[in-house]
Sequence to fold (687 residues):
Amino acid sequence: MRLLVIEDDTTLRESLCAQLATAGFGVEQAGDGKEGLYFGLEYPVDLAIVDLGLPEISGIDVIRELRRKGKTYPVLILTARDRWQDKVDGLSAGADDYVVKPFQTEEVLARVNALLRRSGGWASSVLNAGPVSLDTSRQELKVNGSAIELTSYEYRIIEHLMIRAGQVISKSELTDRLYDQDFERDSNVIEVFIGRLRKKMDPDNTIKPIETLRGRGYRFSLERIQSE
Amino acid sequence: MSSLSTRLLISVSLLLLFFFSVTIVVLDIAFRDAGEQAQEDILDGQLMSLLAAAEPNIYGELQMPPDLPEPRFSNVDSGLYGELRDNSGEPVWKSQSALGLELPYGDPPGAGEHRFSRLQLSDGTPLMALSLSVEWELASGELRPYTFSVSESLDSFHAQLARFRRQLFGWFGAVAIIMLFSISLVMRSLLRPLRQIEKEITEVEEGKRGSLSESFPTELHGVARNLNVLIGSERARSERYRNTLDNLAHSLKTPLAAILSVVSEQPKSEVNAKVEEQVQRMNDIVRYQLRKPATLVSGTLGVAPVAVEGELLRLVDGLKKVYRDKQPDIRLDIGHDVRFRGDMGDFMELCGNLLDNACKWCRKKVELCLRAGDDNDSGYLNMIVSDDGPGIPQEAASQLMQRGVRLDESAPGHGIGLAVVKDIVASYNGKITIGRSPLGGAEISITIAPEGRSSSSPT
Fold:
C-alpha cells in the first residue's frame, strides 16, 4: 500500500513517514500543498494523509482539487484546528476521516488501515474470505483457524490482494506498492513472493486463494464473507 | 431629575410661572390705572354737569335745582353723590342720594383747583371724590368761594377689577396648561430618536441587528456613526483575538505532534511514557483553554442569528463518513427555520461534540431534535441529542459535567467534548441536563433561553 503524506513540519513528517514505512507502507512525502497536489495527482497512491495548514496550497484546497480531478482514494486529515467547523470543512471538501494533532502514531495507523479496508469495500478490520481470515489491525493471517507466519513483504502483498479481493492487481502495481523507490522492476521478486504465499496458505493446493491471470496480474479469488 | 423631559418640564413650568406672574401684575396695574382714569373722567363730567346746573338766586347765591339731569343724584344708594358747600364749610346742597350720609370731603382745595381724593363711608364703602372750588360773584359784588364735590362708590369698579382678575387668571392658567401639555408632546417627539437609539443599541447587544441604522436626526448622526465604528472595531478586535488564539493553538500542536511521533519511534521505555503523558497534558490544557466559547472572547455584541440547518446537514454528512463502519442512523428533527443567536462555531461545537459522542456510543440510532421558541427572534433554543447506546449512569453524569473530567476514558483526547459543551452552554446562560432517552441510551438536553424568559420547554 502506498501512502502520500503531505505535512509541512519536517520533524513530524519524517518521523511519521518512518513509522508508516516500518508498519509496511510505501510512503511518498511532500512538504507543501503544491508538491503534495502534484504527487497526489501523478503518483499511484492508495491513501493520502493531508495536513490542513499547508504552505502554497491549503490542505482543504489540495483535497478539493484531488477530488475534482477524479481521485477517489481515501484522505485522512491531520489538523491542529480541532473546532468542528474546521473538521466539517475538511470532510465536506472530500476527506474521509480526521486525526487531531497531537496524535499517537498508533491512532494514525489504525485510521489508515480502517480507511484502506473501507476503500476496498470491507466493513470490518478482519477480512474473511472462505477459510482465510486476515486481521488487519493485528497483521495476522489465519487459514482454517490456524495462524500463518508471514514476512513483512508477504504480509503487504496478501493484504493488498485481499483488500482488493476480486480485482486484478498488476505485477507492476504490486512492485510499486512494495517499494518506496524504483527497484529492479523487471525482477521476478513478486512471483517469488506469490509462490511463497501460496505454499504457506495452501500447502495442499486445495483452496487456491490467489489466481494468476497471465499477462495481467494476480487476483484474490475467494468469496468475501462480510460480517455484519 | 434624571429624566430630560422631567427637567425640561420643571424648568419650563418655573419660567412660565415667572413670566405669567410678571404679565399678570403688569396687566393688573394697567387695567387698574385705566379704570381709575376712566372713573376720574366720569367724576369730572358729573362735576361739570353740577356746575352747569347750579343757578344763582336773587342774592346771587348759588343754588341747585331740585331736578338734576343725572338721575343717580336723586336715587338713594345710587353710589353717586353730589354736594355744594359755601365758604362756611357747611353744605348748601346735598344730592338726595347722599341724604343722611356724612361725606368727609375735607378742606376745600384752592380756587379753580380740581382735587381727587379717596374717601370711605362709615360703612366702609370706598369712594372716589372730586372737589372743585370756584369764586362766585354775588349780586352784592362780593366774591364767595363755593366748593362742588362729587363722589362715586368704587364698589362697581372693584367688582369689575375682580372680574378682570378672575378672567386673567383663568386664561393664563388655561394657556399655561396647554403650553405645558404641548411642550411635553414636543419633548416626546424630540426624545423619540434617543429612545430609538437606545432600542437599537439593545438590539445590537442582543444580536438582533448588526449595527445602528442611519435614520437619525442630524444631531444624532455623529453619535450613531461613532457607535457603529465602536461596534465594528470591537468585533474586529475580538475577531483578531480569536484568530491569534487559533494560530497559537495551531502552531503549538504541530510541535507537540512531532514530539509524540519522534518519541514513539524510540523503543518503549519509562521515559517515553512520561513524555507522552506530559505532551498529552499540555495538549489537554491548550485544547481546553483555547476552545473557550466565542462569547467569552467576543461577547454577544452584534451577533446576528444564523440559520443552522445547512451546517448541521454538513456536520451529519461528515460524521457519517467518520463512522462509516458503524453506519449510525442519524435522524435530524429540526424545527422550521431554526436560528442560533450566537457564534456559528460555538453552535457547531455543541452539535459536533454531542453528535460525535452519540455516534461513538450508539448501537445504531442517533437523534437530534432542535426547536426554537414560538417567536424565532426570541433566541430560545432547545436541543436534544439522544442515542440507543448504554447511556450514562447517574453518578457519572454529574461527574462528567465537571471541568476537565474525561467523558470517555477509552478514547483519549476526546474527553473534554462534554466539558466544552458545558462551557458553551454556560456562556449562553443555558441549561444542560443528562438523562435517559426513550431510545434507551443517553439523552442530553440543552436549553438556551435569553434572559428574562422562561426556560421551560415548549410543548
User: Anything to note?
Assistant: The first helix of chain B runs from residue 4 to 53. Chain B has three domains: 4-160, 201-303, 304-459. Residues 404-414, 452-459 of chain B have pLDDT under 50 and may be disordered. Chain B touches chain A through 41 residues (CB under 8 Å).
